[in-house]
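lol ok so funny story. i was supposed to be doing the assay writeup but got distracted and ended up predicting the structure for this chain instead. priorities right. anyway since i did it might as well share w the group, maybe its usefull for someone
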Amino acid sequence: MSNPIRYEDRGASADKAEVHKAIAGEHPGLFPGAFCKVLPDTLTGDPDHCVLIHADGAGTKAILAYLHWKETGDLSAFRGLAQDSLVMNIDDLACVGVFGPLLLSNTIGRNAKLIPGDAIAEIIAGYRDCIAMFAAQGIVIESGGGETADLGDTVRTLVVDSTLVARAPRKQILSGDKLKAGLAIVGLYSGGRASYESAENSGLGSNGYTMLRHEFLSSHYKTAYPEVFAPEITALAYTGRYRMGDALPGSNMTVGQALLSPTRTYAPILKAVLENAGNAVAAVFHNTGGGQAKCLRFGRGIAYIKDNLFDPPPAFRLLRDNPAMSARELYRTLNMGHRMEILCEPSVAEAVIAVSKSFQVEARIVGRTEATQGANRLLLSDGKATYTYEL
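and the output, tada:
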């Protein structure tokens, strides 16, 4: 196709270039090269500690829970949004070596004409369930409550966001200072079923859903539920072939189950990796916004070579094989098979892989780092072509 659909065409941004430009003047924190901003411990004034505050959410995935409820009468899909919202924060914090205790505040914005109180109760119950799951993995989260706002004029259906606060020793932080040429890149597979999950995971996570919803789901949803898309993108809204109850080709899931699959946390795996091989780990990247090109924002003079990728899980394969989509765009937007990657000394790569597999999550060396002149580059090969990315 001469003009493949881009993420931006539907009103979203994969690399958030405008956001990064807007915050360019902000102080970068104690460790400018870290995955998350790290602040001085202004709570106690302790020079040996630091504080982190992180906000993220389930994004437009919330619309899928709404559609599931409208078509089936089943409210349970709202429960999973709590995990989506929490994990997008927790796994970012895990990338700098912080695993709690964590203080939580959540914000739910809804259109009260469309989202009933019972749906809110499901989301809050989902937070309790997710907190218990993390506690069983040694990650403590204390909830301080939150805010539910009725925003009918600005929210079409539902927004579920979370904010986490943590305090940690500065010496514990993965600062990014060890990023260099000669590292192995170990990818943790996004599909399958981890030992701490109750069901198979589609691997989709919670980013890129402005693309995923419209590419998978049919025009039925545009006609039946006009509240679930922006009129500005009518021509690109719900252009897929599937209803949510349809079987997902190549999978044991329905399309709806795949799209609503709760975002996997890799925090238990990362915690074990850093406990066993922390000195040899240079960085950890969470491939959400920016997809496989997320790495470009970290380190200097580094060429990231990814030439041994996983075969993508079924949902990603369908997108990749869609002639209306650009493979280059997909890898820039979605994780496409591994949502977490650990950059480490090659001597410990197999040990890192073994830790991941002990949690029943497949892992492999997907690439390496090399030196380059000037700006960072990513060279990504998917077996069919090689794509070059720069900021």
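The chain has two domains: 7-200+260-389, 209-259. The two ends are 25 Å apart (CA to CA).
back to the writeup now i swear
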